Amino acid sequence: MISTSTNVTVELAKKVPARAGAVAVLTAQEGAPRGMELLPAADRAAIDALVGARAIPSRANEIAAQVVDGSPPHRALLVGAGAAKKISAQSLREVGAALAKYARRHKLDHVAMVVPDVLEHGGPGETSYQSTLEALVTGFLLGSFNFREYKGSGSKKPDNEKETPLRLTLVAANTGAAATAAIDRARFVASGQNLARTIASRPGNEINPPSLAAVAQEVAKSTGLACRVLDEKELKRLGCGGLLAVGAGSPNPPRLIVLEHKGSGAKKGASKSRHDAAPLLVIGKSITFDTGGISIKPAEKMGDMIYDKCGGMAVLGLMHALAESDFPLRVIGLLTSAENHVSGTAYRPGDIITLYNGVTVEITNTDAEGRLVLADAIAWGIETYKPAAVVDLATLTGGCVVALGHTMAGLMSNDDALAGEILAAADVAGEKMWRLPVGEDQRDMMKSNHADIVNSAGRWGSPLTGAAFLTFALPEKPKVPWVHLDIAGVADTDKDLPLYAKGATGFGVRTLFEWLTERATGAGKRP
């Protein structure tokens, strides 16, 4: 069974269930709580008492509680949504996550949340009741994530404190098909994101390239995706010198993992032209552990290098979401996977290798390995599938963290239109990105005296030169629109955030699903 580290069921109802352990109502700092007309009289009185006592939460995501007598007793919750003018889909995701964390903290197994028909909020892409539902459910599911796969007897909870399934009932006057579709979409995407977080959180002694391939095959089998795994023999036959070099120091050989969602048109007899159109290609760096190789990393926080596979895990989660949602378009996902280890067979500074497309690379730093495995995947993927567009995700450079911190990813592209599509999707999805330049200046910095290019040009402008390296994997003609997302600063977090606990975030799943949705409709409407 595929684990998402989340055990939540979501339902839609017109009335508050009689046995819910808590009933939640949203409120902005200004004005009255929303949706009071949907509450039973006792809950309405409890919320009125909180308001009368001036116990309205003063900050977003704060929760005030009042016990309501009944059989059994339960809680009426007033959940702060912040200042009305700042309410957005992202702030509503955070509200949903806050409610999920409250439920876990207080060991509740059933929570009802009132969703008003009209909740005015601003920001990019959000105006509708459906987007409010989707945001609240997405946040609740992300906030319910609880990775406990490796908790043993030393942290064993008493039987009466074990994790129990959590049920969320959304109470709304409007429970029609559009509302159900919004909830389903939230479930598909959040489950994909939580799958990405789960596999990203597994340590290097459990997840290596061959075992990651087995996970991908399991995901494919459970969802109906097609899966192909290229092993080290096939990679050698193809001439994937980047993947082979990076994986040479590890006893666990590299893998190029291919997941294909054929599109619902292939199953339902949709127009042949749509199914036969050029697919979209997403590629994720999947370094299952990165020591830095001979250019070894410092010992401090090296354990966090289990998260060097987060780009590929975002692709895995995205493909899961596409399959579960019966997405209409054909999409190819590549996970380009190796372990970068130190041994007598590891690649060295000074080595010269040849990538899949014939470009030769002088190795100047074995810790600049991600671009090598990505370049092979990009070149092979474009030649094999002839995609309409390519997006790659990678925890590529520490320089991107220096430039943009831990709140946004860097975006680099050879195509303004595609870059604009991804940035617009990121705005709607609530995942921050900032475009950085890549061009001939950066390509010139990659020139080598002994080979075509070097794999690292040093510290200056490292996110830009890392992207410039990848442009050498693109064909000159015909031009293929391409976006590179450097997610080094946002793929994991070392502190609790409104949406995420410490650890992997699954960054990129929501943005790419939103982008593909816009591509599918061609009119800015969701399918």
Strand order of the largest sheet: 7-8-10-9-13-17-14-15
Low-confidence stretches: 121-127, 268-273, 523-527
Provide the CATH top-level class of the largest domain. Alpha Beta
CATH topological fold name of the largest domain:
Aminopeptidase
Number of strands: 19
Discrete helix count? 16
Radius of gyration: 24 Å
Shape: elongated
- The fraction of residues in strands falls at 15-25%
Q: How many strands, which pairing sense, and closed or not: the largest β-sheet? A: 8 strands, mixed
* Structural class computed from helices and strand pairing: alpha/beta
Rounded to the nearest angstrom, the distance between the terminal CA atoms is 28 Å
Q: Mind telling me the CATH superfamily name of the largest domain?
A: Zn peptidases
Mean pLDDT: 93
Helical amount among residues, as a percent range? 25-40%
Instruction: Count structural domains.
Output: 2
CATH architecture of the largest domain: 3-Layer(aba) Sandwich
